[in-house]
Design brief:
Blueprint lengths: L1 H37 L2 H10 L8 H9 L6 E7 L5 E6 L18 H11 L11 H12 L11 H10 L7 H17 L2 H11 L1 E4 L5 E3 L1 H9 L8 H9 L13 H20 L5 H9 L15 H4 L1 H18 L4 H6 L3 H14 L3 E4 L3 H10 L8 E4 L2 E4 L1 E8 L5 E5 L25 H11 L8 E4 L2 E2 L6 E2 L8 E4 H6 L3 H11 L1 H10 L23 H12 L3 E2 L5 E5 L5 E4 L5 E2 L3 H17 L3 H4 L8 E6 L5 E7 L3 E8 L11 H17 L25 H23 L56
Parallel strand pairs: 1-5
Antiparallel strand pairs: 1-2, 3-4, 5-15, 6-7, 8-9, 8-20, 10-13, 11-12, 14-17, 15-16, 18-19, 19-20
Helix pairs in contact: 1-2, 1-5, 4-10, 4-11, 6-7, 6-8, 10-11, 11-12, 14-16, 17-25, 18-20, 18-21, 18-23
């Protein structure tokens, strides 16, 4: 007992010490800031050391940043209208009536002003930008983990944080800058000016049409479909209550969020009652108001986020990363430091509010056409497993081979919602056998380890880790086969053997150069799609486009140019192709992949696309969890994937994605024929390498000798049979795998690849190991 009491006393003593330290530090800081404001030299020196990187801003500097609130940023297609002006996709922030910002406190409901003052800053009209006791109180509440926290930032400080400061990290240096700037801002602008700028700067989440709501006018329209001046008391209280946690209180994110927002609204109303802004009667009447019934209804014509939400959000992110790099930030380093997400959010806000013009690579006609046609005559199923519901999805990308520009994409089969995933650009999936040309055969030909006619013995072989054997689909083996034949039918064993002969490090080095780096723990199974991590459709498609571009790799991109509000170019895409494969290797791989669509695992495609010089590769993961086809002409590469978000098995065979691919190809060719020239051909550059006859030549010779001996024995057996017996049948030779879909021509099924999804804890304990690696 005494031991526990002693521990509690030490804990109380430590807490008193922390409180005393915190209080002392705060008042010391406050004194320094006061001295700074009064011009005391020592105060200026110490404070200057804390905010050494922050420039001394004039009123004009503040005005420039604050005026950015009245600018909107826009996104454009690559297409132009009849006047040769780029076709606008939409506004990044608000558009139409959502675009309007208030110019005076008289432009909003008095209830809204009172709600902000009562909840966010009760001393707003009397302080000088900061309230030391409020900051100390907030720090104390955080220290003792109080159930209810009141916040320490004044409205002026919040405005500085929202608009002026770029660094959003919650540290002492940033807080010091915030306080200094708030004091200066308060001295240069009137209270009502600051309040107007503040109400225009606050983010309120997404409205009923999924548009970003910046400013109270946008919030009033996006949440309740009324002008900010027409907000009633409970609506004003609801909006004011959203400031600190706009997503958690967003009524369009579900019933739970709505109820959280209503509780917050009730707190705001109570604050207004306590400060004398409303009467008890008004308070009780407001509590009875049906907020849910007053919410705005969707308007499909509202802005770009309604018509092209996946494009707009993709452009937001890519533009933000461009601006980050423009400011000298290293995205990879930010990720390692855990600061990428917070920094990205800060720059996304700049994209939305600084008047930028973002010119995309998207072809509107092609985008509209392929998204309309992609799912034609396809049935997408739903599945539920252990309470998790899944819907079959489709992701596809079309890339210009010459530049890497993304011309169009299919983001999924579901309509956009706030939790929607872009299956074309963002979702990483296991690649299946589509990886074989990129990791195995392309590098091996480039390194002169093999040539297309090199013989490889297709046989059952053990795994390097001793866990079992690699097998082909159907557990059939074909003896000596050429590399070309092995790729045509997507046999697993030859790919493993070639990869091991090439060297894993060498093969993986090519993936890194192609923008699809391997995981550090990947091994030989990666050769047949057994990777630890997957890749996005966009990145896989760009990697395949390298073969179509004579071995030159272009990183996929979505933005061609970014200008500021005055039209000055601040960033423009510079094409910088990287030589990965020689033209000879690229042509040889392309020629091999031609056979895939002519008579191999991709014949379903070849029998339906006529007149084009077409090459491509299928890919399937274990249990049909991921179904791929990536194909290309001399001008464009189209990659398509289908599957579930949660790794369920598809209800279809691998023709499902191929049908979608055919739909996409035909729609794109019809809508944008300039990218689909039937006369374009892959040109043979000459001097093709063909110097490797076989791998494991001795082993192949022994295999052939054994087969000859077996054939001789069969002949001898036949010759020695009594004359009244029927002749012995020749040994059967297993045909290539065949799903029998729409013959002729017959289409082989794609063998599966090792999944990257985590298996159940008891998987593999109840039955012998079976080859999980698909084609």
């Amino acid at each position: 007992m005494k031991k526990h009491e002693s521990r509690r006393q030490r804990h109380r003593k430590k807490r008193r010490y922390l409180k005393w330290t915190l209080k002392t530090v705060w008042w010391a800081l406050a004194l320094l800031f006061i001295l700074s404001a009064c011009g005391a030299g020592i105060g200026v020196g110490i404070v200057s050391a804390m905010v050494k990187d922050e420039p001394v801003r004039s009123k004009a500097d503040f005005q420039r940043d604050l005026d950015s609130l009245f600018q909107n940023s826009y996104a454009y297609f690559q297409n132009t209208d009849k006047n040769n002006n780029p076709v606008r996709i939409g506004a990044f922030r608000n558009d139409g009536e959502y675009r309007k910002l208030i110019r005076s406190v008289n432009d909003v409901s008095p209830y809204l002003v009172d709600a902000f003052i009562a909840t966010e800053d009760r001393d707003f009209y009397t302080h000088h930008g900061i309230v030391p006791r409020s900051i100390l109180r907030a720090a104390y509440q955080q220290l003792v983990h109080a159930d209810v926290t009141t916040g320490g930032s004044t409205i002026t400080q919040q405005l500085v944080k929202n608009v002026i400061l770029k660094n959003r990290e919650q540290d002492l240096e940033r807080k010091s800058k915030e306080i200094v700037l708030a004091v200066r801002l308060d001295a240069m602008f009137s209270k009502n000016q600051i309040l107007v700028y503040y109400m225009n700067s606050v983010f309120f989440g997404k409205g009923t049409n999924r548009q970003n709501l910046y400013g109270v006018q946008a919030a009033a329209k996006g949440l309740f479909n009324v002008d900010a001046k027409e907000l009633n008391l409970p609506q004003a209280a609801y909006i004011a209550g959203m400031v600190q946690r706009p997503n958690d209180y967003n009524p369009f994110r579900g019933e739970k969020n709505l109820q959280h927002g209503i509780k917050r609204m009730q707190l705001v109303l109570r604050n207004m009652l306590e400060t004398g802004k409303i009467t008890p009667q008004q308070y009780h009447e407001a509590l009875k108001f049906n907020i849910k019934a007053s919410l705005a209804k969707p308007d499909p014509s509202a802005n770009g986020y309604s018509s092209y939400p996946f494009i707009m959000y993709a452009l937001e992110t890519e533009t933000a990363e461009i601006l980050m790099q423009h400011d000298g930030l290293n995205i990879e380093e930010l990720s390692k430091q855990g600061k990428y997400r917070s920094t990205l959010e800060q720059y996304v806000k700049q994209v939305q509010t600084r008047g930028y013009h973002v010119y995309s690579t998207i072809d509107q006609k092609m985008y509209d056409a392929v998204n309309k046609a992609a799912t034609k005559n396809l049935t997408f199923h739903n599945r539920t497993y252990k309470g998790i519901k899944g819907h079959e999805q489709l992701g596809a990308v079309i890339i210009d081979n010459r530049s890497g520009a993304i011309l169009a994409f299919v983001p999924g089969t579901s309509s956009y919602n706030q939790n929607a995933k872009n299956h074309a650009l963002d979702a990483s999936r296991q690649s299946g056998s589509t990886i074989k040309p990129l990791l195995v055969y392309g590098p091996a030909i480039e390194e002169k380890v093999i040539s297309p006619d090199t013989l490889v013995l297709d046989e059952k072989i053990p795994r390097a880790d001793g866990s079992g054997y690699y097998e082909n689909s159907g557990k059939t083996y074909h003896g000596p086969v050429t590399v070309k034949e092995a790729l045509k039918w997507s046999y697993n064993i030859p790919a493993i053997k070639v990869f091991n002969r090439l060297g894993h490090d060498t093969g993986f080095s090519y993936l890194r150069k192609l923008g699809i780096p391997p995981d550090p723990i990947d091994g030989e199974a990666a050769a047949i799609g057994g990777q630890t991590r997957g890749y996005t459709v966009a990145k896989m498609t760009a990697a395949f486009a390298t073969f179509a571009n004579q071995g030159n790799y272009n990183s996929p991109y979505l933005i061609s140019k970014v200008t500021d509000a005055n039209g000055h170019v601040i960033w423009e895409h510079k094409q910088a192709p990287t030589r990965i494969f020689s033209p000879q290797t690229s042509y040889q791989i392309t020629d091999m992949l031609r056979d895939v669509v002519k008579s191999g695992t991709g014949v379903f495609i070849g029998s339906r696309i006529h007149g084009y010089d077409l090459a491509g590769k299928t890919g399937t993961s274990t249990d049909d969890r991921d179904l791929w086809f990536i194909g290309y002409t001399p001008q464009v590469t189209i990659g398509a994937w289908s599957g579930y978000d949660y790794g369920f098995s598809m209800s279809h065979n691998d023709h499902f994605t191929k049908r979608a691919w055919v739909n996409i190809f035909n729609a794109a060719a019809k809508s944008s024929p300039s990218y689909f020239d039937k006369g374009a051909r892959f040109e043979n550059p000459g001097h093709l390498f063909d110097g490797v006859k076989c791998l494991e030549c001795d082993k192949i010779k022994k295999y052939q000798d054994k087969k000859k001996k077996e054939q001789k024995n069969n002949r001898d057996q036949h010759n020695n049979q009594p004359p009244d017996l029927p002749p012995a049948l020749p040994p059967s030779v297993p045909p290539p795998p065949n799903n029998g879909d729409n013959p002729p021509p017959t289409e082989p099924s794609e063998p599966p690849t090792k999944p990257w999804y985590p298996p159940p804890p008891d998987e593999g304990k109840k039955k012998p190991h079976h080859d999980p690696f698909p084609f």
